[in-house]
């Protein structure tokens, strides 16, 4: 229906759909216009002005990201006027920016640095504004560090926190020279509504927002001969890590990553997929118990829908924003924390090491996991269950520091015990994955048959859509599950907290009724997590997602309840799902928090 | 307001005590929308806030947009340094402003109007409320479903920029939006909106009453009509004056100066400084910059005599801008700080005099790339002061 607009850019004719911007038209011609405040995930701000271009007949330059194309427009992206202005703008940003690039975490990954390098700004004219600004670093959060001296005020973080996450922990404060990105009353990030999701970090063009790094602590632990250092790797890390180490987005690097971790000196390289499978056993059983209480016992107090609790960003979000729904949250710990609790109990006993000497490290696509590991509840092993959480990016840093040529590594397998994971565990890394994994197991427990989907692929719950719904008809059940006969199990899946917000509002209004909802804080699920490599957009998320599902397909073991190590741990240690021991180690509780 | 001036003609259209709004409105409502729009277009009335967009065209464009609801907003966020005429208009003839809003509402099909009142003018609210009560009665009598409410700003200069004003009204941070789209199709609440300065609306009442032809008996080509000026600074007769557009700065200085006038700042801090040597060649109006000598203004005329340091004047403007910039766009936020720190550094001898040329180039970039009129216009006062009083910047 839409019209085609004809214009020319740098003398080259191009036709694009009406409503497209000059920037998009230029991209079609493979003409690169530098941008900073622009991000494909976000609404247009047009505030950095780096993308200005010259439009014939218009005296002022126009922001190409914010200006729609019009018929007959003649654009020059590289005129003298454009070059001078663009250079000035970058010089201005640099004058306001703490240029300690060599000491910066984003060195080499910084969008400002990259544009400045392209423009060859070797002798800037302007006065350094940083010394007078009295900047301080907010490092109180266990997950995120905010350094205003590196902030270029593009507001990508603000838009991310508001639009994608519906959290609003950070916003613009003050005006003019004093304008800055701030929290509620300028409180430190650990004292505000921040969910620690880290989406602000992956959307920040500079080093103003970074994860709190624990790389040095992990090196120290590895170097300590007294310590037995175990490492677990989350499902989404294996489809993201490659991007930091020279591979195309969507490359699966699972077995190289295992080899690298061994070379880094970890004593045992284990898999969070194992506890993802365990989560399915516990959470799937919890769901069935809740359904039984609701449908068979007619217990009016049972909270449905049951919501997943794997995503610590989501958990903190519901604690802040929907505390009345805390009883709906599954009491299961996340796979990371189940792993941590078992590492210092079951695993320690199994390998006969004093748990006090075990250092438990996890590699996560997530910054909220750093916060989760520091929650006071997470000490059920008698120790801090997970000592240090590193992001995918931090693991890449360690691999580079160790001089490991990642692409030359041989492929290796995880250690055992707690090293075997099923395909159901792998797909935890994608939005809809927990739901799919739970359905594969729960359906089979109830009916004795596999889920009625070709190849076990439950397509309706897959994909990057913000909110997905699925209905599974349960029929021909085993006798003990008679009360579920003919029940249509209603499920919903969301990713990104804005979508979670929409879903919760629909539930609150009574517009929607579900039995089970899966909610992941980050767009695309863990594969789009705040600890994953830069940059990110939906194209990259889709590639990582394809890699996750191809990893699942490549495995013969694809259902959590068929994982032999799961059978083993219930036989040797836990007894059965929701047993007393399980409750002690694998389940947790939540707290109501302030809404701001 | 009976102060005599020597040679310029004092006009008395805005402030005369006509109180026949109901009659004038009825007359205008009896005409077709097209007739009224043509009258407005023919009058040549341009926005009196300083930007000078043709008012009739603005109304016409908004009338043509097929979307609803539509809004009429009176921009009374008078914040330009040295400008205080809208306060006077709202104090003395608010009924004319409201009549202008009603005419516009009828033409574009709006049922809701707002006066966005500068926070510092809060003291006007009780009398404006009383005026609104009378106005709404007239609306009832004339059968026009149009209501006007007051929205009080909070003191940010930038909220006088129309799109920042909409953001402010919507409860958001006052930051200018990207344009296009323009308010005519996407204004307050993303709906078609006419936003006019207080004085513009009062003039539209005059045009309705006396006709476009009469309006064009005043002023000069492309700058028809009269304008209310806020005269301040080194003058024996500061105050509010309605004068014809097109006068030369020399004529203005002859009437208002104290005999020792060194320069006149036309259009407030975001306007131009005219030095003595350019008085005769500079005219007040909208002729467009092609002539190089016409200066638009929202009405502020600040007179400086030879006792004034132009360095201090510029320092003061820049301090104002670096604080009142919304801070979102790079050229304005960082540019203003650089200009201020830059002239201080030159003055202290920390930077060479040639650094002023780099700063002038920077103001070029600001003019070309800033997101809104604020950042774009900092260059006006900076370049006109630095170029004409360079020695005062250095020594």
TrEMBL record, chain A:
Single GO biological process annotation from the record: ATP synthesis coupled electron transport
GO molecular function: 2 iron, 2 sulfur cluster binding; 4 iron, 4 sulfur cluster binding; ferredoxin hydrogenase activity; iron ion binding; NADH dehydrogenase (ubiquinone) activity
InterPro entries: 2Fe-2S_ferredoxin-like_sf, 2Fe-2S_ferredoxin-type, 4Fe4S_Fe-S-bd, 4Fe4S_Fe_S_CS, Cytosolic_Fe-S_CAF, Fe_hydrogenase, Fe_hydrogenase_lsu_C, Fe_hydrogenase_ssu
Segments forming domain 2Fe-2S ferredoxin-type: 3-81
Primary location recorded for the protein, binned into one broad class: membrane
Pfam family of the protein (one): NADH-G_4Fe-4S_3
Cofactors demanded by this protein: [2Fe-2S] cluster; [4Fe-4S] cluster
Occurrences of domain 4Fe-4S His(Cys)3-ligated-type (ranges): 81-120
Matching SMART domains: Fe_hyd_SSU, NADH-G_4Fe-4S_3
Keyword Ribosomal protein: no
Domain (4Fe-4S ferredoxin-type) ranges: 142-175, 185-214
Keywords, ordered alphabetically: 2Fe-2S, 4Fe-4S, Iron, Iron-sulfur, Membrane, Metal-binding, NAD, Repeat, Translocase
Subcellular localization, as worded in the UniProt entry: Membrane
GO cellular component: membrane
PANTHER family: NITRATE, FORMATE, IRON DEHYDROGENASE (PTHR11615)
Family the UniProt entry places it in: Belongs to the complex I 75 kDa subunit family.
Protein name per its UniProtKB record: 2Fe-2S iron-sulfur cluster binding domain-containing protein
Organism: Ancylomarina salipaludis
From TrEMBL, chain B:
Domain NADH-ubiquinone oxidoreductase 51kDa subunit iron-sulphur binding: 311-356
Coiled coil: none
Tagged with keyword Heme: no
Keywords annotated in UniProt: 4Fe-4S, Iron, Iron-sulfur, Metal-binding
Ranges annotated as spanning the membrane: none
Keyword field contains Glycosyltransferase: no
PROSITE patterns from the UniProt entry: COMPLEX1_51K_2
One Gene Ontology molecular-function label: 4 iron, 4 sulfur cluster binding
Record-linked InterPro entries: NADH-UbQ_OxRdtase_51kDa_CS, Nuo51_FMN-bd, Nuo51_FMN-bd_sf, Nuop51_4Fe4S-bd, Nuop51_4Fe4S-bd_sf
Family: Belongs to the complex I 51 kDa subunit family.
Protein name: NADH-quinone oxidoreductase subunit E
């Amino acid at each position: 229906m839409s019209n085609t607009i004809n214009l020319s850019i740098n003398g080259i004719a191009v036709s694009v759909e009406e409503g497209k911007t000059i920037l998009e038209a230029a991209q079609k011609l493979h003409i690169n216009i530098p941008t900073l405040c622009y991000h494909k995930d976000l609404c247009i701000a047009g505030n950095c002005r780096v993308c200005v271009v010259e439009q014939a007949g218009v005296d002022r330059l126009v922001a190409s990201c914010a200006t729609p194309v019009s018929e007959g427009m003649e654009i020059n992206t590289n005129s003298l006027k454009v070059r001078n202005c663009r250079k000035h703008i970058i010089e201005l940003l640099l004058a306001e920016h703490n240029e300690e690039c060599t000491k910066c975490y984003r060195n080499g990954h910084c969008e400002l640095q990259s544009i400045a390098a392209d423009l060859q700004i070797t002798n800037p004219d302007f006065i350094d504004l940083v010394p007078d600004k009295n900047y301080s670093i907010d490092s109180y959060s266990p997950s995120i560090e905010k350094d205003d001296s590196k902030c270029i005020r593009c507001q990508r973080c603000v838009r991310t926190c508001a639009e994608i996450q519906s959290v609003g922990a950070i916003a613009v404060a003050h005006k003019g020279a004093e304008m800055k990105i701030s929290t509620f009353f300028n409180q430190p990030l650990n004292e505000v509504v921040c969910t620690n999701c880290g989406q602000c970090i992956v959307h920040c063009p500079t080093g103003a927002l970074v994860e709190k790094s624990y790389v040095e602590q992990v090196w120290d632990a590895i170097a300590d001969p007294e310590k037995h250092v175990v490492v677990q790797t989350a499902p989404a890390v294996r489809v993201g890590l490659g991007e930091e180490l020279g591979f195309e987005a969507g490359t699966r690097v699972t077995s190289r990553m295992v080899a690298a971790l061994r070379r880094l000196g970890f004593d045992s390289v284990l898999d969070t997929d194992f506890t993802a499978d365990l989560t399915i056993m516990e959470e799937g059983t919890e769901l069935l118990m809740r359904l039984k209480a609701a449908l068979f016992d007619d217990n009016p107090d049972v909270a449905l829908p049951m919501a997943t609790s794997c995503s610590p960003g989501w958990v903190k979000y519901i604690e802040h924003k929907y505390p009345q729904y805390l009883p709906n949250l599954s009491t299961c710990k996340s796979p990371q924390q189940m792993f941590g609790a078992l590492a210092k109990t079951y695993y320690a006993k199994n390998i006969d090491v004093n748990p006090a000497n075990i250092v438990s490290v996890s590699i996560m696509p997530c910054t909220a996991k750093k916060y989760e590991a520091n929650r006071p509840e997470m000490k059920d092993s008698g120790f801090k269950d997970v000592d240090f959480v590193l992001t995918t990016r931090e693991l890449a840093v360690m691999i580079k520091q160790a001089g490991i040529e990642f692409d030359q590594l041989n492929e290796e397998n995880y250690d055992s015990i707690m090293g075997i994971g099923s395909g159901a565990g792998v797909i935890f890394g994608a939005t809809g994955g927990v739901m799919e994994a739970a359905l594969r197991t729960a359906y089979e427990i109830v009916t004795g048959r596999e889920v009625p989907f070709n190849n076990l692929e439950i397509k309706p719950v897959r994909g990057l859509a913000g909110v997905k719904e699925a209905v599974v008809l349960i029929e021909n059940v085993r006798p003990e599950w008679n009360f579920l006969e003919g029940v249509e199990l209603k499920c919903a899946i969301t990713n990104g907290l804005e979508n979670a917000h929409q879903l919760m509002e629909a539930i609150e209004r009574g517009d929607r009724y579900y039995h089970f909802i899966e909610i992941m804080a980050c767009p695309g699920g863990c594969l789009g997590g705040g600890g994953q490599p830069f940059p990110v957009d939906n194209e990259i998320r889709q590639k990582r997602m394809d890699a996750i599902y191809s990893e699942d397909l490549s495995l013969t073991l694809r259902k959590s309840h068929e994982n032999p190590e799961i059978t083993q741990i219930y036989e040797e240690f836990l007894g059965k799902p929701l047993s007393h021991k399980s409750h002690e180690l694998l389940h947790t509780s939540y707290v109501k928090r302030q809404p701001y | 307001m009976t102060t005599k001036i020597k040679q310029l003609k004092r006009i008395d259209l805005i402030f005369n005590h006509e109180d026949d709004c109901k009659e004038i409105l009825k007359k205008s409502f009896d005409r077709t929308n097209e007739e009224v729009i043509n009258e407005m277009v023919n009058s040549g009335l341009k926005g009196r806030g300083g930007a000078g967009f043709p008012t009739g065209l603005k109304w016409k464009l908004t009338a043509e947009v097929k979307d609803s609801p539509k809004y009429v907003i009176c921009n009374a966020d008078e914040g330009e340094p040295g400008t205080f005429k809208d306060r006077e208009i709202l104090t003395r003839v608010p009924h004319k402003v409201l009549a202008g809003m009603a005419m516009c509402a009828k033409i574009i099909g709006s049922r809701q109007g707002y006066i966005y009142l500068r926070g510092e003018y809060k003291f006007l609210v009780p009398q404006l409320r009383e005026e609104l009560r009378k106005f709404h009665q007239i609306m009832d009598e004339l059968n026009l479903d149009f209501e006007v409410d007051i929205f009080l700003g909070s003191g940010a200069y930038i909220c006088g920029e129309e799109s920042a004003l909409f953001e402010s009204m919507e409860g958001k941070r006052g930051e200018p939006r990207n344009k296009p789209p323009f308010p005519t199709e996407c204004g307050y609440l993303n709906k078609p909106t006419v936003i006019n300065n207080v004085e513009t609306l009062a003039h539209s009442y005059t045009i309705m009453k006396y006709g476009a032809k009469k309006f064009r008996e005043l002023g000069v080509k492309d700058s028809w009509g009269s304008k209310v000026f806020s005269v301040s600074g080194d003058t024996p007769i500061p105050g509010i004056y309605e004068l014809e557009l097109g006068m030369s700065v020399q004529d203005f200085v002859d009437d208002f100066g104290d005999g020792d006038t060194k320069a006149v700042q036309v259009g407030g801090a975001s306007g131009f400084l005219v030095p003595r040597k350019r008085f005769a060649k500079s005219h007040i109006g909208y002729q467009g910059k092609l002539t190089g000598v016409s200066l638009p203004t929202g009405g502020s005329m600040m007179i400086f005599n030879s006792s004034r340091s132009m360095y201090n004047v510029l320092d003061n403007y820049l301090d104002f801008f670096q604080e009142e910039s919304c801070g979102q766009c790079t050229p304005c936020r960082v540019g203003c700080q650089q200009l201020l720190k830059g002239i201080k550094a030159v003055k202290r001898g920390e930077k060479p005099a040639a650094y002023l040329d780099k700063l002038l180039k920077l103001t070029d970039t600001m003019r070309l790339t800033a997101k809104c009129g604020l950042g774009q216009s900092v260059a006006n006062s900076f370049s006109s002061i630095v170029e004409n009083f360079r020695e005062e910047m250095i020594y």
